[in-house]
Amino acid sequence: MSVRPEVHAFFDPATFTVTYLVHDPATREAAIIDPVLDFTPRNGRTSTRSADAVLEHIAENGLQTRWLLETHAHADHLSAAHYLREKTGAPIVIGASIVAVQRIFVPLFEAADVVPDGRQFDRLVQDGDELALGESTIRVLHTPGHTPACVTYVIGDAVFVGDTLFMPDYGTARSDFPGGSPTDLYRSIGRILSLPAETRMFVGHDYLPEGRTEYAWETTVAEQKAGNVHIHDEVSENDFVALRRARDAQLEAPLLILPSLQVNIRAGALPPASQDGHVFLKLPVNAI
Length: 288
Description:
6-stranded mixed sheet; 15 strands; Metallo-beta-lactamase, Chain A; 7 helices
């Protein structure tokens, strides 16, 4: 029988992002998945309010942070991984294909301080890698499509899919970012949906589709296979690719894509300060 990890979710209404705190019940070792650094685009201010809420829960429940897990380089929120590494000493983990993402965006942002080899992160994981979490195991699935670096984490009877899948009534991730692919996305989702039907699935965002009034982020493999509006059992690869391309063509870029990516390719660190001590995020004009 699979270990059943304890999962606590922290929902950020500003970016519709869910950060997860997962811990092994026997040892109380914990992993934080996709932490949010609060950012206000109107005035360029950052805050650690969301990350501090996770730290407070860890302290109150006597947990030990073992890993900081990123499912990919997010385009919709800034990562708090760098801040949490400073606070907890836990290493930052991301898929090894983050290097491909860095090679795309380092030139765009003229990020001379970023060597595009993934060294900003502490551990680059490949498909099939395993990480220990107390008596539990974190298994890595490489699930590209949304981005080339997306990974999914399987921990006991739970799977954390990042942006690859949303709740069944909302569908699947977009695949039009640089390096994305609807064909890869379809095949990656197929791998995820081959997990046992009862596997608890935790998604990275919820956007309240029409007809639902409460945010949700937990479902199951069985529920996705039966009722996902984009990719249930009756949808072929060709049909999915056509649907995804048509839908993506109508989507605007995420509000925080430019600030997010230049921070997240740095593992959540802000760019280096200028000689006068100011930190600047660049805004490439007409570049995406």
